[in-house]
Amino acid sequence: MNGALLVGGTSSDAGKSLIVAGLCRLLHRRGVRVAPFKAQNMSNNSAVTLDGGEIGRAQALQAYACGLEPSTRFNPVLLKPGSDRRSHIVVRGQPVGEAGARDYHEWRGRLAGIVAGELASLRAEFDVVICEGAGSVAEINLRATDLANMGLARAAAMPALLVSDIDRGGSLAHLFGSTAVLDEADQRLIAGYVINKFRGDPSILAPGLDMLHRLTGRPTLGVVPFSDELWIDAEDSLSTPVGRRVGPPEGADTSRPTVRLSVAAIRLPRVSNTTDVEALGCEPGVDVTWVDDPAAVRAADLVVLPGTRATVSDLAWLRARGIDAALIERARSGRPVIGVCGGFQMLGRRIDDPVESRIGPVDALGLLDVDIVFDPNKVLRQVSGTGMGHSISGYEIHHGRIGRSGEQPWIEDAVHGPEGAVRGAVRGTHWHGLLSSDAFRRKLLREMAVEAGKPGFVVSETTSVDETRNAQVDLIADLVGEHLDVPAIEALIARGADPRAPVITHSVG
């Protein structure tokens, strides 16, 4: 088998990332040399590659599903929203500037060549490339500058599957309408549909799928059921809802510790790298929930202040909601707080940011004796070292530098020197992924349980974040393998779209 496939969607968060990861793992299991690809991603949830580049977190997970190390080749263009109107542009893993929706078309010519070159290179090296679209394929107002959806499919002569999240309602109309608004050449590349997150009796849905087939001439190649066993984020941190529990569903673990730790992860407006809290969610005795109010911050045993793409403006948001006061109360009473990257910067004394916010020096929360100065040159690297007597590893993505610190470092970086800071029960670091180091996390949880007044908490000695992540990817592949017509999809990859596929005609007015 040799070829490529685009998995597009009727909307953002339709399940494209999940379907791509599942197909990648399925093909990898069968010995197919397969690679993921997303021409252009918009997300603040990112990962660092071995060569010091930055890509979308979903593509890092999809690479993992393929048995590959993350590479900038898998996501050559990454847009990181810094506000509702402007995004920072990352090309081949490195920041190159920023743009708004109106002036992004000026980048299109340059980026199109980069995208085409990377995809052609991957197709020459691998048997199969599974491409993920972005947002909705039906954003016809953006079609002229499209790099990731039908523009990519047309340029590379790829067939496309269209995925719809039935949990949102209106899936049949979304699939029909998304196909119908495309021009004839784009429509002919839409080869089939996938329904995602279905709940209930499939026999009730079947007549609707038959009617959709008659109306469009395209089959539904699978109905993937909703699964509450899937909880590891694959894509956009901005879709993370307040109140969402991070971890296996209630009652999933067989041994429920009688003493449990509650963790409040603060849902910042521009939160990034939400995957940092997943490591805590893996622990059977730890309950992690996304929150945005002072009461939840005060009530939790542990608070995590995660990364952000807009440190200064999200710090102002904390203050406007009164969360700053709740964090200061916790610190004064010796109750644990962890800040990661932008969250760590907020915990310091002062932030001087002429790069992202361009506001200049502002006072931070003052919980750590650390001054942060932003540098135009972004730190992008994988890191390793020692913390609390255990080997640790992670990655860094930040402009902020520790300009001055009167605190003890939290961790020792074997390559770049001491990193982070600690004062009492308040700890901070620029390292993402630190809590995925199992032995380090266990020792840290024991310490924080004592600080939280729960010395009876017993941490699991067997939890492995890597094994949990691998099990989640296998679960995705099992769902896809069981509920999609995989032979039909493999045939589609090998032969391409049918050039005689019917076109849905419509008129306006």
Automatic annotation (TrEMBL):
Entries under Gene3D superfamilies matching the protein: 3.40.50.880, P-loop containing nucleotide triphosphate hydrolases (3.40.50.300)
Protein name: Cobyric acid synthase
Superkingdom of origin: Bacteria
The entry's keywords: Cobalamin biosynthesis, Glutamine amidotransferase
Active site per database record: 341 (nucleophile), 432
One Pfam family from the record: GATase_3
Role of this protein: Catalyzes amidations at positions B, D, E, and G on adenosylcobyrinic A,C-diamide. NH(2) groups are provided by glutamine, and one molecule of ATP is hydrogenolyzed for each amidation.
Pathway assigned in UniProt: Cofactor biosynthesis; adenosylcobalamin biosynthesis
PANTHER family in the record: COBYRIC ACID SYNTHASE, DETHIOBIOTIN SYNTHETASE
Residue span, CobQ/CobB/MinD/ParA nucleotide binding domain: 7-231
Domain CobB/CobQ-like glutamine amidotransferase: 263-439
Recorded family membership: Belongs to the CobB/CobQ family. CobQ subfamily.
